[in-house]
Amino acid sequence: MTKLLFMGTPDFSATVLKGLLADGRYDILAVVTQPDRAVGRKKEIKMTPVKEVALAHNLKIYQPEKLSGSEEMAELMALGADGIVTAAFGQFLLTKLLDSVGFAVNVHASLLPKYRGGAPIHYAIINGEKEAGVTIMEMVKEMDAGDMVSKASTPILDEDNVGTMFEKLAVVGRNLLLETLPGYIAGEIKPEPQDHSQATFSPNITPKQEQIDWTKSARDVFNQVRGMCPWPVAHTYLAGQRFKVYDTEVVEGEGAPGQILEKNKKTLVVATGNGAISLRVVQPAGKPKMEIIDFLNGVGRTLEVGDQFGE
Predict the structure, then answer these.
(1) What is the DSSP string of the chain?
(2) Annotated binding-site residue? 68
(3) Span(s) in the chain for CATH 3.10.25.10
(4) Where does the chain hold its CATH 3.40.50.170 domain(s)?
(5) Does 2-198 carry CATH code 3.40.50.170?
(6) Is 112 annotated as a binding residue?
(7) What CATH number is given for 207-302 in this structure?
(8) Is 113 labelled a binding residue?
(9) pLDDT in tens, 166-197
(10) Out of 41, 73, 207, 217, which residue is the most buried by the measure of CB atoms under 10 Å away?
């Protein structure tokens, strides 16, 4: 059996880990994941999805705040792993750790060299890409710049958002890794260098990027909203208060950007720089996430055609 260290954090990573655990060719010596974090309004401490899987399988778990310079580093290097598999781990790996094993590969949720970085799925949707994918690549010191072992793609549909694409690509990545890792380990698959001149980047989404720019086209606003759902969530302002938008639909209509064009008991249509969108799922300040019909029958009753979204 090939002895592995697995490093990952979110549900995407957990799906890949489950695949490796179900495959009799691999022995997971230890799992490295991010520390437990306080989440939500109640600040409840929550384990990472990868930690939950590791606990269910009685695996050794490491959770350094920062792997570089940690006490855990020496322990990991002493475990005698043949290789490392990472998937959305969220930290850089030191060269000495990479050099301590026979191979190290990453399951990256983009079709490299496009969208190197921490938010590839977000940017693919925001930019209106027609497909997304996964690349299995060798790990090097430079971020997501290693040679490519294999790739697989899947369409991005209008009904997709970040959440659904993460689920789809986790399965794509799991299957691709299990299909190609044996051949790679055996030396039957020769990794292909990336064309670095074609590289694009997908850094973590900033608060400024979350804010809806109503002067953009309806399609761009539609892509932004689904490219940030269910996290970090696009927002605008209504009467000076933050107003989150989770789901929209492109519709016909023209008017001043951010202006309400149509309002009835079930529909709220807002103008953009080109076209309009119908809001479908929203969250007013201080309220829970809700369908637009519930908003319009509640705190949104006082809105009128001509009212304005935005700062």
Answers:
(1) -EEEEEEE-SHHHHHHHHHHHHSTTEEEEEEE-PPPEEETTTTEEE--HHHHHHHHTT--EE--S-STT-HHHHHHHHT--SEEEEES--SPPPHHHHHTSSEEEEEESS-TTSSBSS-HHHHHHHTT-SEEEEEEEE--SSTT-SPEEEEEEEEPPTT--HHHHHHHHHHHHHHHHHHHHHHHHTT-S--B---GGG--B-PPPPHHHHB--TTSBHHHHHHHHHTTTTTT-EEEEETTEEEEEEEEEEE----STTBEEEE-SS-EEEE-SBSEEEEEEEEETTS--EEHHHHHTTGGGG--TT-BB--
(2) no
(3) 207-302
(4) 2-198
(5) yes
(6) yes
(7) 3.10.25.10
(8) yes
(9) 999 999 999 999 999 999 999 999 999 999 99
(10) 73
